[in-house]
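Quick log. Single chain, no ligands specified.
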Amino acid sequence: MTENEQEIGKSFDIYDLHILRILLKDSRTPLQEISKEVGLSTTSCWNRIKKMTDSGAIQSYTVKVDLARIGYQDTVIVQVTLESHSEETLYEFGRALESIPEVLEALLISGDYDYFIRIAVKDTRDYERLLRERLYKIPGIRHSKSSFVLRTLKKVETPLD
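-> predicted structure:
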């Protein structure tokens, strides 16, 4: 974290955090509702939201989608070890993952594996297809281990949820 990012983090008060919690629940909450719940004027709330957006603390407004309702019944966690750890290999692997729409999240990690990848699939046959047609065609994979998610116990985007 840069010095500037640390300063931005320190400038958030209880009102800013309250506004963020409201927006995390529903980013379409009207400004008047936010103001009423937080106990500030609409102008003050708008200025705070603008400041958080300008600083990059609020990155976007989006929707949450129930993946099962759009046909993606299963989530698979894949741990991957690469043959090489050169900058080029890591870069190319990351680019390849970006081209696979089913990859929801890819994290470069420490430990026994190099990557932790969260993938949405329709079923086990769909996952087998994705492995054959996409994942295993990425050069440089030494080893992978897959685990199907049985149930999600907790999922939040921030500790403020």
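The chain has a mean pLDDT of 91.
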